[in-house]
TrEMBL record:
Protein's name in the database: alpha-1,2-Mannosidase
Family note: Belongs to the glycosyl hydrolase 47 family.
Pathway: Protein modification; protein glycosylation
EC number: 3.2.1.-
InterPro entries associated with the record: 6hp_glycosidase-like_sf (IPR012341), Glyco_hydro_47 (IPR001382), Glycosyl_Hydrolase_47 (IPR050749), Seven-hairpin_glycosidases (IPR036026)
GO cellular component: endoplasmic reticulum; membrane
Residues reported to bind Ca(2+): T542
Annotated keywords: Calcium, Disulfide bond, Glycosidase, Hydrolase, Metal-binding
Reactions this protein catalyses: N(4)-(alpha-D-Man-(1->2)-alpha-D-Man-(1->2)-alpha-D-Man-(1->3)-[alpha-D-Man-(1->2)-alpha-D-Man-(1->3)-[alpha-D-Man-(1->2)-alpha-D-Man-(1->6)]-alpha-D-Man-(1->6)]-beta-D-Man-(1->4)-beta-D-GlcNAc-(1->4)-beta-D-GlcNAc)-L-asparaginyl-[protein] (N-glucan mannose isomer 9A1,2,3B1,2,3) + 4 H2O = N(4)-(alpha-D-Man-(1->3)-[alpha-D-Man-(1->3)-[alpha-D-Man-(1->6)]-alpha-D-Man-(1->6)]-beta-D-Man-(1->4)-beta-D-GlcNAc-(1->4)-beta-D-GlcNAc)-L-asparaginyl-[protein] (N-glucan mannose isomer 5A1,2) + 4 beta-D-mannose; N(4)-(alpha-D-Man-(1->2)-alpha-D-Man-(1->2)-alpha-D-Man-(1->3)-[alpha-D-Man-(1->3)-[alpha-D-Man-(1->2)-alpha-D-Man-(1->6)]-alpha-D-Man-(1->6)]-beta-D-Man-(1->4)-beta-D-GlcNAc-(1->4)-beta-D-GlcNAc)-L-asparaginyl-[protein] (N-glucan mannose isomer 8A1,2,3B1,3) + 3 H2O = N(4)-(alpha-D-Man-(1->3)-[alpha-D-Man-(1->3)-[alpha-D-Man-(1->6)]-alpha-D-Man-(1->6)]-beta-D-Man-(1->4)-beta-D-GlcNAc-(1->4)-beta-D-GlcNAc)-L-asparaginyl-[protein] (N-glucan mannose isomer 5A1,2) + 3 beta-D-mannose
Amino acid sequence: PSDINPNVVLTEESNRLYGLHNYVSRLPKIQQDIIAKETTEERDVREERRESIKQSFLYGWNGYKTYALGADELKPLSNKSNNPFGGLGATLVDSIGTMLIMELDIDELLPLIQKIKVKPDEQMSVFETIIRYLGGLLSAFELSDHPRKHILLDKAEEIGLALLPAFETAFGLPYYHFNPLTKVSKTNTTYLADAATIQLEFITLSYHTGNPIFAEKAQVIMDFIDSADYSQGVTVPGLYPSDINIADGYFKNSVISFGAMGDSAYEYFLKQYLLVDGTVPQFGRMYEQSIDSMKSHMLVQLPGAKFLYLTPYDADRKLKTNAMDHLTCFVPGMLAIGSKIFNRPDDMKVAKGLLETCVHMYRSSNTHLSPEIWSVGKDSVPYNAMTYGKSEEELVNARSWKNWRNRHVATPPSPPPKKQEPIQKFSRVLEDVPETPDGSVIYDTRYLLRPETIESLFVMYRMTGDPVYQEYGWLIYQGIETYCKTKSAYASVKNVRLSKMDTTSNQIDSMETFLFAETFKYLYLLFSPPDLISLDKFVFNTEAHPLLRRPMDFSK
Ligand code: DMJ
């Protein structure tokens, strides 16, 4: 591994949950220095809430431990096991990092990790294996000070090595599904997110093992995407259709998405730039290009409203689809961080507008849970930074000749106002729930315990210090407690609009591992002191596993 600045010797021993203590990023600072001052009372409430979230995590964990320990998932209604990720114990691995952050003991789990057989004779998702297992193990390795924490890294390396044959393809793009034992895959089609959500984990694995092969595989994919052109089906710079044929390197359809199938590819353009402390300009360039194109081709606004929507875009037909999915709600957090790193203030406004929509989907449903997919309000128009938030009437008025003359000609110019630091007025009191825009309907009524909106609330809170984001998070947490809790753990919900029916009959017998890795972790951190897993020291992989930021360059 090459720490590119030989003068920076990063000590690994510093307090693990607070990052490498002598690492100060050369990129702009992400977090707000002073998070809103709290009174003792506010502090007590925050700590109480934090403790409740920890107890909820433990409640779900104990259900898994009792009925399904070692399996991928617990089915929270029937108390049976479910193994969609090769049966390597996905919930176990996905939970360890959260336990470390919550200062829970992982001692008894290490022998279980050691025993994991990494090559089941079945088709496994390369993407899920990387984000859940590799991400989980590497993050836990970096966060832990356990004397036997090497077990975590050893297992990560074993998994990494077992996956390597999946990258032996014409362009180095990994198979979508792959049998690590027989090394066979049944399909040549993969998806943008599946192909390009590898870099944080593979770069970190190379860093710790000293074996550059993983980072090299990750870089080949970045170069492939970076150089993809019109002849391969890329028609808008920085926006990549979601289906890829890995045999001929062609982007097969023309639908671009920041939700399902596309999401984390764009997330990783930005995050790998942060991970390596900006040492590889290519990553930053790719991120900015994608965001510029997204804003000009995909984003829509509603006249007079704060809501912004981001839906898939068919680049060939030049058509936006009408459905926004919950997965897209990670975008506000990403844009907010990117706005700071690359000094793009308008991206912060867009982040807030999109978050407005995501939060609204929770607040406007009577369970305080968000549906999985909803439609854009009617009357939507392409995003325009000049007109965003203004009603038709305001716009007509603003353009009237009389108003313009009154403001600019008739009135003598007044001296420029003295520059004053804006006074930040924060309030914990939530405004009334705005009206749901005309024509907006719910296409998929389920809540699947997903984290994205909470993730964006967490990022926004850390970046602005505005406690309103905590209040939104608390509302969502209460929805989860009320409608998802089962006798043994937490379940997904069938219909977020039904609060009156018997809770159990509105539940689905499924508890995805990201409840433990992401949803509870982001909630817990939302109510934690801001230097715990600071965004200036860590970057979260797409499964919310924090990885240490440090200058390094494997791209050459
Ligand atoms: C997680 O597994 C990851 O965040 C992934 O990138 C997409 N979504 C799920 C959680 O919703």
